[in-house]
Automatic annotation (TrEMBL):
Keywords: Glycosyltransferase, Membrane, Transferase, Transmembrane, Transmembrane helix. This is Polyprenol phosphomannose-dependent alpha 1,6 mannosyltransferase MptB. It holds the Pfam family MptA_B_family. GO terms for molecular function: glycosyltransferase activity. The gene is mptB. Residues 1-27 are annotated as: Disordered. Belongs to the MptA/B family. NCBIfam families: MptB. Residues 11-27 have a biased composition (Low complexity). It is found in: Membrane. It is a multi-pass membrane protein. The chain crosses the membrane at residues 40-60, 80-100, 120-142, 203-225, 237-257, 277-306, 327-356, 368-389, 401-419, 431-450, 462-479, 491-511.
Amino acid sequence: MTATAPQALPGADGASAARAAREAPATPDERRRLRFCRRFGFTGALLMAVGALGCGATPASAYNPLLGMRVLGLPGRLPTVSLAMAYVGMGMLVLAWLWLGRLAWPGRVRLTVRQLSRILVMWCAPLAVAPPLFSTDVYGYLSQAEVVSRGFDPYVFGAAQALGLDDPLVASIPTIWRTTPSPYGPGFLTFGRLVTSIAGENIVLGVYLHRILALVGLGLVIWAAPHLARRAGVEPIAALWLAVSPLVLFHLVSGIHNDAIMMGVVLFGLEIGFRSSWFVGALLIGLGASGKIPAVLALAFLAAHVARERCLAAGKDPRGRDGLIALIRWGAAVSATGLAVVAAVSVGSGLGFGWITALSVPNLLRSWLSVTTDLGVLGGQIGIGLGLGDHTDAVLSLTRSAGLGVAALVCVLLVLMVLRGRLHPVAGVAYGFGTVFLAGPVLHPWYLLWLMVPLACSVTAPRVRGCAVAVTAAVALLVPPTGNDFTFRAYQLPMAITAALLVAIVPLLAARGNTPRIPPRSAAPRDEAVGPRP
């Protein structure tokens, strides 16, 4: 763990150097390379979008509108080809993002926030109109919202119990989740109920409405990231580039996970809390936590920031007894405000507090990415090997509880580091979320975004940022671009990967001599790029 204290941006001398650098015109070769990078990533996104028509999470076959269509229905009849196209597109998009990072690395920035935002929007566009990839969760969102709309308690009844097995929404979700209650908070289910009231029985419209929610969340991230970065002494371009990574495009835009809207609201709340009003910030974070309860952790770091600021304003030392008293006082105020929003949404939505008991629903899945789950399964297998019987569930309960206990202790230490000025509050949020999810019972690849996005906005250490880039790129390629069930056609996945590796030779050859070069290190952060906008 690297402690990152707030840093000041360069002063007048640095600004003059950056302004002088901006006046140097970009060469035609630099503009050509940037155009190639932008188009290379866009082509990868297009390939993923076309592949999604055949391997994406379309509705169950009996309700799939693509079946029977002459052009759009063709990829569905060629699933292996669709998978290969999606894999090639994933690789191209990740490579384009890495090349773009040469122009967005701290001290070597050659882009503006506006330029980078336009490029990211361009890459998002094909994925935003294509069927979902990587996950079928959006159909779970729709089915749980339908359960609420029909007057059932989503924290008691599963989709199959309330809607019936022949319902098209139930048929579109994995079997393991058809009978389980909803694991989401009342805030998100209230959003879902609104989507259902608009879409009605139109599944495709419901999917796109949820994607609009995800895009709104992504927009909040794009707005908040540069502002939070400036407060931590990180160049806004570098923060935005790392924050909106292929992992975001794949799992929040294409996969339509509700982490997008929750994370966007939390980051927006943190910026408002730092900028103007801790009260409004706590209200917004509480609203995000009403959808995904772990988001409530951000309240602790907002409270630590407020307590430190109040101590310094009063001429008191936040590292001593006065700091602890202020942390308790403001921690209670900030936490009470945020939790009051969660309680108000629970009561106002009519869903009550059943979400508390439903928090254990995700634990039904044994996630191999979770360290505590892996240790529990390993302990159970050792017991079986020693002839002690199968006690895997008991060992899992022990290791998962221990993991959450360790996470709680680490979060307390992080809050104290923020109070004493040894850690920026946004970095504390990043490490806190990372600890909770990494030590938690279930870890999905997109959960890492709760660590990576605030980390991108707060950490300046090159080694930490380099490690974050490597992890992001690797994890982005970890999950197969499937949405349909390939359980009984497992042979198609290795065939598609082999084909993708062979086909990828063509774009790699085209990229030779056309990728952006690493620019010389600037004397100061640059707010504007050299040359015209792409």
